[in-house]
Amino acid sequence: MGAVAGAIAAPVIGQAVGGLLGGGAGAAGSTAAGAVSAQAAQAALTNTQNIANTQGQTLAPYQTLGAGAAGTLGSMLNASPTGGAGGTAPGLLSTFNNADLTANLAPNYQFDLAQGQGALGNQFAAGGGANGGNAQTGMSAFTTNYAQNAYQNAFNNFQTSQNNIYNRLSNTAGIGANSSTVGATGSTNFANTEANAQMGIGNATAQGIVGATNAITGGINQVGGSLTLGQMLQSGNGVPSLNANQVAAAQSNASNGFTPNFVSQN
Q: How far is Cα 229 from Cα 250, in angstroms, rounded to an integer?
């Protein structure tokens, strides 16, 4: 009986110790692996946050510029004669009037008009009809045509100036709007990436805990089975006489963490 118990007890004890060591090593390995995965996910999260901050700093000047232009444009969208740039120019919704005509006439308008009238009068004088009806009609027609052309030029200048102001402010405001769109799209992408990274950190940590728990549980179960066999051997209760083949089978069962099911021999 003692030889049989001794033959089985050695692998049983070894199995129990191995179960403890294996369970502890497995738990440590799972915990370490989970920690490494969590660190990698945290590094990815930090990198994403840094990129998001850099993008925000890069876009900020354009957004500020665009916001300023949009504000200026909004303040000038009125019909006031002095609602435009500097508080002296007309608002961008104002209509062309006499003041605008005067302001947009060519600087040399009066000089060129006087020169043209003088040249036409000299022509009539040279022909001896300076005071005749044809001379008066011709002078009137010249002055009217010249004034009409000048008016059209002044109106075109007014429109061009108003359009230039609007387009410049609108384009600058568009730069800010586009920057805001890029920032909003980037923020959404970064938020999704951060959420995934946070989930990765949680999953990695959880997997490490689960792996450690499983390793410890497996070790405990293995130790429990080995100790059950050891107790049976120590007490001698229910242990039959075993031949060499049965001893080898019992050793194999103990090594594999199984408690043997002894059947009494007659």
A: 9
Going by C-beta distance under 8 Å and a sequence separation of 6 or more, which residues neighbour residue 131? none
Q: Could you give the CA distance from residue 57 to residue 128 in angstroms, rounded to a whole number?
A: 80
Note the pTM of the prediction, 2 decimals. Answer: 0.53
DSSP of the chain? -HHHHHHHHHHHHHHHHHHHHHHHHHHHHHHHHHHHHHHHHHHHHHHHHHHHHHHHHHHHHHHHHHHHHHHHHHHH-S--TT-SGGGTSPPTTPPP-HHHHHHHS-TTHHHHHHHHHHHHHHHHHHTT-TTSHHHHHHHHHHHHHHHHHHHHHHHHHHHHHHHHHHHHHHHHHHHHHHHHHHHHHHHHHHHHHHHHHHHHHHHHHHHHHHHHHHHHHHHHHHHHHHHHHHHHHHH-TT-----HHHHHHHHHHHHTTPPP------
Length of the chain: 266
Every domain of the chain and the residues it spans = 2-255
The answer to whether the CB of 100 falls within 8 A of the CB of 152 is no
State mean pLDDT over 51-69: 85
Which of 249 and 52 is assigned the larger pLDDT?
Answer: 52
**What's the token pair of residue 72?**
């200026």
Which pair of structure tokens corresponds to residue 97? 């009037």
Q: How far apart are CA 52 and CA 38, in angstroms?
A: 21
- C-alpha closest to that of 260 among 7, 28, 44, 68: 7
pLDDT digits (tens, 9 = 90+) for 138-155: 878 888 898 899 999 999
What's the confidence (pLDDT) of residue 238? 46
For residues 35 and 207, what is the distance between their CA atoms, to the nearest angstrom? Answer: 10
Distance from C-alpha of 159 to C-alpha of 251, rounded to nearest angstrom: 104
Give the residue from 246, 218, 259 showing the smallest Cα distance to 18.
218
